[in-house]
Amino acid sequence: MRVAIALIGSRGDIQPALALGVELQSRGHDVVVGVPRHLERLATGCNLAAVPFDYDPAAFVEESPVLKKALMQGINIGTIRSVPALWREISRFRELVSAGVRTLVEMCKGADLIIANQTTQFLCSAVSKEWGIPLAALHLHPCVPNSFFRAPSAASDTVLSKRATRNTWKWHEFYLRFILYPFLMGDGIRTSLGVRKIRVAPGQGQEVLEIQAYSGDLIPGIEEELGAHRPFVGPLRLPSDTRTKAGESADSHDGLVEWIESGDAPVFLGFGSYSKSKPQAEFVALAEEIAEHLGERVLVNMESPGISETSERVRVVGPVAHDFIFPRCRAAVVHGGAGTLHEVLHAGIPVLVGWINIDQPVWGSMVDQAGLGASARLASLSEASVLKDKITSILAPRVVETAQRFGQKMREREPGAKLAADAVESRFFTPPTAPPQKLQST
Asked: Domains along the chain?
């Protein structure tokens, strides 16, 4: 079976789909993945055929002060006044996305199955409808109306009633289906498919296999509500041997491991690509203050660190293998994206979610309710007193024990990539049957 996996997003959006691609390829399927160019090396390192395109939202935002301010501050008087400038930047981003859309559509030609992530499901649904190719989608958080996980456009960690939670999806679905995706992807889809009107599969129902690639245990009641036709497989993680082949093994962390093992387990402080939003000196100063006041060691994770170590109690590092580092830490302070968050929970350590937008505040709320840590807007954590109090709260024995039990439960489950591949094969692939053997005459 030729499988085309079409992906748009950050590393956290894409790596789980690569894990599924690796698993399907190990079962004999022909897999090709479309990925942003800056993640091509990761895909090929997983021994997957990759079709790259120019798309790097983090770099785009980094080069746009207007977009960066809007992303960090949300909707306020300042961002409203910047609407004209924002519109110009969004229009430039649209051109970038359209080019990626055309590359992904071309890649899907001749496929027996298309697999999308939550960002490309609209695009891949149009291709599926037009060319009659079956479609599966990976959801890293609930992406359909439900009573437990609010719509990502309602960015807040406030706990809502079930009815209010479901109501947040009414505007969100309309916004994605009829405004955002048609605006960003419409031209690319129409040009690539040669159509005037975009047809997509319904957002709900059983036409598309929607695989839930996150922990249902973190959202009690969600599995029953979404139904058996949306299989819950848990987070998808790359096998350790694949990480080694991709150049992300523990071998590159020897010096860091020595530092960790030279004292008490540190608190991990890192926000992925969002760490570019502040100068490194500010993060380091904050870590030094936390280390001094709490008596903790702090491991600061920066995208592009200018220095490697600042003191005995604080160490600054670049990109690290989370699955290797988190189990060696005492707790973690992260942005709350689904991929990173589930790695923390899998390690069995408490977590402080410093959320910014989209699904992050909702995950933060879930973590808080489950007793696995705490949640706060990232901007508020720039104050040392707030960060200190939050870290103190997640290091409470009750929270530590709850996180350890949750992590143990996650580790005892079957690998998510295996379960996802099982679901795909069960739905779309019928292995050839051996021809009946002739009976020998006696």
From this structure: 2-213 (3.40.50), 249-410 (3.40.50.2000)
